[in-house]
Structures are given as C-alpha cells and as structure tokens.
Fold each of these.
Amino acid sequence: MQNRITELFGIQYPIIQAGMIWNSGWRLASAVSNSGGLGIIGAGSMYPEVLGEHIIKCKKATDHPFGVNVPMLYPNLEEIIEIIIEEGVKIVFTSAGNPKIYTSKLKDNGITVVHVVSSVKFALKAQEAGVDAIVAEGFEAGGHNGRDETTTLTLIPMVKEQIKIPIIAAGGIATGRGMLAVMVLGADGVQVGSRFVASEESSAHRSFKDVVVNAKEGDTRLTLKELAPVRMIRNKFYEDIAELYKTGPSVEQLQELLGRTRAKRGMFEGDLEEGELEIGQISGLIHEIKPAAIIIEEMMAEFEVARNDVAMY
C-alpha cells in the first residue's frame, strides 16, 4: 500500500506506533518497524543516556525506519535532541510544545519532522513551522490530550480542509475498520497507541496490560485539564482526583496530588491503585495481548475487507 505517508517514511503500511511514555521502548519500536509499520521510541519517560541506549538497540534490532517521539515539555530537551542527531535518527515526532523550537534544526540535520496536534489552530502553526506531516489526535486518545475535547471524527475533516501536508489520524483507532474510516475522512495514515500497549513487546507492566484488555466502555476519564489534560483508567488514584475536585482545588493542590512518578508507578511498575493508568477509550475494543506483528497483520487484513465492503455500496 503506497500513499503520502508510506512514501514519506519509507514503510510498507501507513500505521505508526505512538511514542507512549513507559510503553514504547526499543523492543516495541523495532517489532512494529519489522512488521511494516513505523515504530517509535517514546523519549518522554527516558533520561538522555537511556534514550541513547534504546536507539542503539533499536538500530541493531531492525533495518527498517523507526523514529523517536519527543514531548517538548520535558527537561533535558537540548540533550535529547543532540543524542537523536548524533545517533542518526531519521524521523522525529514532536509533541506538547511549540514546533518552531527544533523543527529547523532537525530538518537541517536531515531528519523528517512530524508534530502532534489536537486542533486546526495548532495544525496550521505546525505547518507554518515547516514540519513534514502532522498527527491530528482526537480526545478519545489516551494519555495527554487536547483541551478542546474535539473528537477524531470531527477533527480529521476540519484539519484536512486547512492543511496541505500529510495527516496522520490518532485517537480511537485500533482496528482496520477504524483505520479505513479516518482515511476516508482525509487522513493519510494512522497513529495507534492503546492497541500497542497491549502487545507482547510493549514495555508496560503485565498488570497494566491486563487492565487494558479487561477495560469496558466508560472505564476511562479525561481529567486534570488545569495541568495537562490526561485520559486514564478509573482507579483509586482517579477517584482521589475526583474527590479533590469537589473541594474546588487550586492548581498547586492538583500538582501535589499528582506528584512526579504516577505514570511510571502505574504503567511501568504495575501499581493499579495509586498509579496513573493512561489509555484511550478504544481500550473497550481490545481484548487480547498479541505480538505487534499480529496486530499489524490483523489491522491490514480487516482494512482490506472493510474497503471491499464499502466498495459494494
């Protein structure tokens, strides 16, 4: 399957694995890339030296293209960018910040740059900054999210109306039918997060993966909009947040409750009560932990069946 996204990245299928903190190490990234998609190492949960180790291991594990996701709100940003350049990474996804800061520097070093946005406004700013493509992410997505709560179904066609560069849809996509739907709406490819959390190669704790495959409709909530909106599984930590909101808390009180290691405790260490369990609404359609290769194979098979079904109308 060839289109603007497969040609941009040099991949077989227009499926990009999201760079999710505490879930997206070199094992998952290389497995996705070896299966025809684009694997992404999530730098947001890594110290610079750890990121360097993951990049080196990923290069040894795959001969196919892979990238690194860089959330721009994290510390050590300059050092992370330098490591990416030094190690010869060819694709970078930036998020959670101003795309103008590093796009020119990355492109000057031969790196393809993609920026993650949650609105038409920020899509236009990213295009103006010179990125090669954008990820337009609806509020169904897990983890940190847009403040406007625009759904993928409405976001993609609105972005398509304004943007000339390739568009990658994200948020609520875990099946071939979902992939076809957003591509009909104007996307050139998809970014998949939650489905790859529940993969064998994901670095998430097994207990968190089990929670994901057992999740039902309504088990996730978007909260903490005063800090950075995040979608998570309802657990004791989420209920503690809900109780605090009843008191009309200050930003400082919310920050104190959140602390510094909630995401690591929940997703990486498996603390299902006090940890932050970030996952998307589509978790209600994920029922089994599978190898990344099988996930991609099944998505593409379902995509082709769905495309043929639609052609019948």
Note: The domain at 12-204+283-311 is CATH 3.20.20.70 (TIM Barrel).
Amino acid sequence: MKDEIVQNCTKILYNTKDLQIVLGVGKNVAYKLMRSKNFPSIVIGGRYFVEVKTLEKWINQNAGSRIKI
C-alpha cells in the first residue's frame, strides 16, 4: 500500500540531491545554491528544498546569466 502511494505522488519539492541531478551539478554547488540569498529555497526542519515550479521559473528568469554563488 505504501509503495503504491509513493509511486502515485508527483514531487512538488526538490531536495539538494534532486537539485544535483536536475541541474547536473556537484554536491557542493547544489548546497551553496540552496543556501544562496538569490535562490528561492525553503528550509523545513533544517533541510533545504525548492519548489519544482519555482525552480523552473528561476531557471527561465536567469537564462543566459552567470550565477555566482
């Protein structure tokens, strides 16, 4: 039953490991980005997340930019 629920869930938040995969960056870059002032991350219980839709919007807004972290 639990496996069925998990399979039917669509992620709405990415954690740092997800961010690494999606952006194709290393662990250190993903952590720095999540902690960056200009990145739309949220903190829940000390863990960093970014909403999937917000990440897509951030990427589109920063297309062609050089991101310094």
Note: The chain has one domain: 2-61.
Amino acid sequence: MTSLRNISSRKLLSALKKLGFVEISQKGSHIKMRRITPRGIDTVIVPDHKVVSMGVIQSILEMGNISEREILKHI
C-alpha cells in the first residue's frame, strides 16, 4: 500500500482533483484548491514542492475534510 511519506505535490494535486477539488489560484509556490460539498466549501493550500512533509499533508487533509484512506485511494 502506498504511504503518504515522500509524496510530491504533483501526486497530491492529482489526487485532490480526483476528489473534486479544482485549482482556484496560485501565489508563488502555493496553490489554492477548493471543492463544494453538501457540508460546505473545503479549501486547501498545497505547496508546490518536490516532497511535501507529513505535517503539511496532515494539515491539508484536516482542512479539506479528507481521510488518509480516501486520499491514498487516489495516489
């Protein structure tokens, strides 16, 4: 099974798009993505880095109301 360790921002962005997120804007190396769900609007900021740290990934999952299992299905 794939782990969230050593995931590039490109793989993370691809997985988020599969979960319904769309790119809203980019400022420098940070990409803002958003999706609308029945619960409301989820917004996440993804740094455009070769490797995204585990702490940042956990924050993205928390902000986007995404489970680790759910994101791993799409990576």
Note: The mean pLDDT is 92.
